[in-house]
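User: Sequence recovery, please. Input:
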């Protein structure tokens, strides 16, 4: 049985549970419990505060955990980042009042910066030879300058609207973060095997999300050109159409290259292009 810690409620909760579900792992009951087990995968799920997850994974109370990379780095526990998960993306940034004339890191010298991320911030200040002072607080960091508690803040940002409404502007980004799967360093062979199975499924889910299934019709004279655009997983599938001289081509295309590929396909006389989502992809 592998024990996984996920956030009890908050920004990570939904996507964490959704990922397990997409991996075909059914959970027995909702999040109102402290823990639950899966009926079809050897997994026990603990619902915890995200800040506690690195410690629990380090102690072995949980074997693995899903947590923001920001929390993982801040807590400085000796655990392994196994895989980035691609959700809950945000950045840890320094912000100052809008009226502050900011040009470079040197402008932070002698300022007082409020944050809940004192370890990560200290690393940044040290690397930049800054003597700014860190004022560690536990929440509502964004109001600190407004109430005279600090000159600047260092906090998580996604859209920037919270900064804006508090009269602040972002001046330095010190970390790009997303949810990650982290693991205890001394997993037994049995637990490692289960983790490998879980990772195999996560990879299949993520690969599917990053790719689309594409079907199109093209004149046979253009097939060679089209194959260069659609290498597929091994090679594209080609089926003759009832109309002589034409074929249907089926392949997989990466999300990032998608629109560019479609444009070029049209130049190669492709018609009737259909694009479908892929549920799982084993590469
Ligand atoms: P808990 O009660 O579990 O301690 P919390 O209030 O510390 O919850 P949340 O606000 O739910 O935590 O954020 C959890 C994680 O979501 C953050 O550590 C970060 O990795 C990620 N995140 C993504 N976008 C944002 C954002 N705009 N603000 C804060 N966190 C964000
Ligand atoms: Zn938290």
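Assistant: Recovered sequence (283 residues):
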């Amino acid at each position: 049985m592998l024990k996984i810690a996920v956030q009890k409620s908050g920004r990570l909760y939904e996507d964490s549970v959704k990922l397990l579900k997409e991996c075909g792992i059914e959970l027995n009951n909702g999040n109102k419990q402290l823990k639950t087990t899966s009926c079809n995968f050897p997994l026990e799920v603990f619902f915890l505060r995200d800040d506690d997850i690195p410690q629990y994974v380090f102690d072995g109370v949980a074997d693995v955990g899903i947590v923001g990379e920001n929390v993982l780095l801040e807590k400085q526990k000796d655990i392994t980042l196994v895989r980035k998960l691609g959700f809950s993306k945000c950045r840890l940034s320094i912000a100052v009042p809008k009226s502050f004339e900011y040009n470079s890191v040197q402008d932070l010298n002698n300022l007082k910066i409020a944050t809940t991320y004192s370890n990560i911030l200290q690393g940044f200040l040290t690397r930049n030879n800054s003597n700014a002072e860190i004022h560690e607080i536990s929440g509502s960091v964004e109001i600190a300058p407004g109430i005279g508690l600090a000159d600047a803040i260092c906090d998580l940002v996604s859209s920037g609207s919270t900064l804006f409404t508090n009269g602040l502007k972002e001046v330095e980004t010190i970390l790009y973060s997303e949810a990650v799967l982290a693991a205890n360093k001394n997993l037994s062979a049995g637990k490692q095997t289960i983790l490998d199975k879980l990772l195999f499924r996560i990879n299949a889910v993520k690969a599917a999300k990053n790719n689309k299934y594409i079907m199109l019709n093209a004149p046979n004279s253009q097939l060679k050109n089209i194959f260069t655009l659609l290498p597929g997983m091994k090679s594209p599938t080609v089926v003759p159409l009832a109309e002589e001289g034409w074929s249907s081509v089926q392949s997989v295309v990466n999300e990032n290259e998608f629109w560019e590929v479609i444009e070029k396909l049209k130049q190669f006389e492709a018609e009737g292009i259909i694009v479908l989502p892929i549920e799982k992809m084993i590469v």
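Residues 7, 10-12, 49-51, 68, 70-71, 88, 90, 156, 158, 177 surround adenosine-5'-triphosphate (ligand 1) (CB under 6 Å).
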